[in-house]
Amino acid sequence: MAAPNPNHAQKNQCNFSKDFDYSQRAQWLRAAVLGANDGLVSIASLMMGIGAVKEDAEAMVLTGFAGLFAGACSMAIGEFVSMYSQLDIEIAQMKREKRMTNNGQNDEEIQKEKLPNPFQAALASALAFALGAIVPLLAAAFIANYKVRLGVVVAVVTLALIAFAGVGAVLGGTSVARSCPRVVLGGWMAMGITFGLTKLIGSNGLEM
Questions:
Q1: pTM
Q2: How many domains is the chain built from?
Q3: Mind listing the pLDDT tens digit for each residue in 167-188?
Q4: In which domain, by residue range, is 34 found?
Q5: What does the chain look like in DSSP terms, one character per residue?
C-alpha cells in the first residue's frame, strides 16, 4: 500500500481554506465582535470618565455595572430590530423573484434559505457586550489604590482589545496585523477622550 502523499494532503487543506466561505460566519461573527468590542470600550471609557472625578472604586464599579445592563439591552434590541428589517426585506425580495420567475417556490422553501436570524443576532450581541464589559469591571473591582486601578484598567482593556481583534480577524479570515492596531488605537482614543472631557467638566465646577 502506497504511503500517503503529504503534498496531496497539504494541497487539499489549501483548497479547503480557499473554498471555505467565510461569509457564512458573517451573521453571528459581526454581531459578536461588535458587541464584545463595544462592551469593552464603552464600559471601560465610562469607568475612566467616572474615575476622572471620583477616586473610590465603588463608584467606578457601580457605574460599570449600570452601563453593562443598559448596553447589553440596547445592543440586543438594536440588533434585533436591524436584523428583522433585513429579514423582511430579503423575504419580500425572494417573493418578488418567485412571482417573476414562477418557479413554484413555496413559503416553506423560503424559510429554509439562509436568512438572517434576528433572535440569534440579538442574543449574540447581548452576550458579547456583557463579556467585553466584565473585563474592566473585574480589573477595577479589587484594587483600592486610585492610580493603580486606572492603570490596571487601561492595561487589561488593551490586552482584551488585542485578543478580541485577533480572534475576530482569524475567524473572519482577515489580517490580524492590520486589525489589532486599529482596534487598540480606537479603544485608547475612546478612553482618553472620555477621561479628559469628564475631568475638564469636573474641574470647571460641575461636581457629582
A1: 0.71
A2: 1
A3: 777 776 777 888 888 889 999 9
A4: 27-203
A5: -PPP-HHHHHHHHHHHHHH--GGGGHHHHHHHHHHHHHHHHHHHHHHHHHHHH---HHHHHHHHHHHHHHHHHHHHHHHHHHHHHHHHHHHHHHHHHHHHHT----HHHHHHS----HHHHHHHHHHHHHHHHHHHHHHHHT---HHHHHHHHHHHHHHHHHHHHHHHHHHHT--HHHHHHHHHHHHHHHHHHHHHHHHHHHHTT---
